[in-house]
Amino acid sequence: MKQRKLLFLISIMVLGIAACSKDATHPFDTRFIHIMENDASEVTVSDKANAVGTYNVYLSSRQFFDTVVVTYKVTAGNGLVEGVDYTLLNTGNELRFLPGIYDMPVRIKWMPNPVDTLRKNTLAIELVSNNKGIHLGLPGPDAKQKIVTITKIP
User: Using CA atoms in the order 93, 96, 101, 103, what is the torsion angle rounded to 10 degrees?
Assistant: First the structure.
């Protein structure tokens, strides 16, 4: 009887140990780069605003020792004019994540100017590429937060 109990307990332990490593996931193994504003991919700004908007690009990764260069593009809808409605404060179209840096800003100065509600009053910041092959957007087939869209509203 004691041998049966001992054999049963050993069997349970072996199965438990084997099951612990099976299909184990490592949640921080997938490195990714994403952009958002207050946890959202779509935000608004008033056409009366006279302020600087900061839209952060985040590197989600274990510690790394190389510089990650992220390229992005800014696309304005037909209702916004650079220099009239907004000004890009970043120079160029790259962000450099030095070792130990995990967020970098894209800054836009919003200027007070009424919008035509019949036009597309959006500004999209899209992550285009990086030099380390890191996934752009949140992991998954939708790649959410690869683009943040700012809509200027009355």
Answer: 10
